[in-house]
Amino acid sequence: MKKQVIKILAGVVILILLAYVLRSLYNSKPRITEVPVDNQTNVVGNTTPNPLPDTGIKNDKPSPVVVKDKEVPVKTLDMKKWLWVKTEFNNGETVTPKKADKFSLAFSKDGRVAISTDCNGMGSEYTLNGNSLSFGPIMATQMYCEGSQESAFSSMLSSISSYFFNSNGELVLNLKYDSGSMIFK
Q1: CB-side neighbour CA atoms (13 Å) of 29
Q2: What pLDDT, on the 0 to 100 scale, is given for residue 112?
Q3: Using an 8 Å Cβ cutoff, are 72 and 65 in contact?
Q4: 39 falls within a domain
Q5: Is residue 46 packed enough to be buried (19+ CB in 10 Å), middle (13-18) or exposed (0-12)?
Q6: Which residues of the chain fall short of a pLDDT of 70?
Q7: Is residue 6 part of a domain?
């Protein structure tokens, strides 16, 4: 009985520490302020040409992409909370979450990402360069959860090299060395 109480108290202490760390991360000075725009890549890293010529005028809001006389809203990483659907590896293996609603990414404009899993809460910083995407060290609480997919999920995130949005509006994170893709909706 005492061991269970100690484990519960240790878990509570870890959660409090994680909340403190994440709060301090979100309250620190932003490191990413804007995504570069050029004529080859639009603001979100899509490979469609930017419809407007470079006028030298700074615009804080990206222009919508026009496809066949229809305005399509620009997709950005921070537009919503992204839920993990699956990871497809180039060797034919597919990994899907056992608890799909538990794995998510929430990007903020200031270069931070909050990561939820089926066990622990995690957080990191991210860096964008065109459509290249990389995560800094991932911090997490250290609770043990039997059968969790957290280790595999965080390992995949550590191997991200770039991103794009597919025609279904899903976020696709490409793994390094062209080894596969993580798909989020």
Answers
A1: 1
A2: 96
A3: yes
A4: no
A5: middle
A6: 5, 9-13, 15-74
A7: yes
Q: Which helix (H) or strand (E) holds 81?
A: strand 81-89
Residue matched to tokens 């909050």: 114
CA distances from 90 to 66, 93, 170 (A): 32, 7, 19
Q: How many domains does the chain have?
A: 1
Structural domain contains residue 49:
no
For residue 83, give its domain range.
2-34+74-184
The CATH number that applies at residue 146 is 2.40.128.270
Instruction: Count CB atoms within 10 A of the CB of residue 68.
Output: 5
pLDDT digits (tens, 9 = 90+) for 158-171: 999 999 999 999 99
CA 22 to chain CA centroid, Å, is 16
Token reading at 146? 């039997």
Q: Kindly report the number of other CB atoms within 10 A of residue 169's CB atom.
A: 12
Q: Record the tokens describing residue 127, joined without a space.
A: 């860096």
Q: In the block, which residue shows the tokens 């030298």?
A: 56
| Sequence-separated (6 or more) residues with CB below 8 Å from residue 82 | 104, 105, 106, 107, 171, 184, 185
Q: Please state the length of the chain.
A: 185
Note whether residue 48 is domain-resident.
Answer: no
pLDDT at 51: 46
Which pLDDT belongs to residue 53? 47
